[in-house]
Write a structure and sequence with these properties.
eight-stranded mixed beta sheet; Signal recognition particle alu RNA binding heterodimer, srp9/1; globular; 163 residues; alpha+beta
């Protein structure tokens, strides 16, 4: 699988939670952890659901037309919304991506205030490494990934509510 396909699969997996949770309505910006797993995201998220309670939503790669070489049953995006008000998101790594325990987490910033989120993006990516530019994606939102100057992985998703 090409690096660009890996990034596209991962970008889609990472940001669908913001798309699904927005429901087209305006909401405050959110910050949430995103965990990645080597094919065990479903089992991990079911475990976290048993620990924290709440509502678990799981979307497989096949639900969105899995690219060639990607397991259609693999988890593209999972989201656990807990009764305590926090959210955990997860996905399976695309084929060929290395699983590094301890490094399999990113921080997601999502919402629909484009100006605020672009400002965060500019400051977080300054002095860091942009791994996917902040740009419009196939699901309609703007999305980008970077590692800040301290090596922390960030994902920014700007929901396109209403068009």
């Amino acid at each position: 699988m090409s690096l660009s396909l890996k990034k596209a699969s991962y970008r889609a997996a990472a940001s669908l939670g913001a798309v699904q949770s927005s429901g087209g309505a305006s909401h405050a910006q959110q910050i949430e952890p995103i965990l990645t797993f080597p094919g065990t995201a479903r089992q991990a998220m079911e475990h976290y659901e048993s620990v924290f309670g709440g509502t678990l939503t799981v979307n497989a790669f096949g639900d969105y037309g899995a690219p060639e070489g990607v397991d259609p049953n693999g988890v593209m995006h999972a989201m656990l919304e807990t009764p305590s008000g926090f959210t955990i998101m997860a996905s399976d790594l695309p084929p060929g991506a290395e699983h590094k325990p301890g490094e399999n987490i990113a921080v997601s910033l999502s919402g629909d205030d484009a100006s605020e989120l672009r400002g965060y993006w500019e400051k977080l990516s300054a002095g860091g490494t942009i791994t996917a530019p902040l740009e419009k994606q196939m699901w309609g939102d703007e999305f980008g990934m970077c590692a800040d100057q301290f090596g922390i992985a960030w994902m920014v998703n700007i929901s396109q509510s209403g068009g």
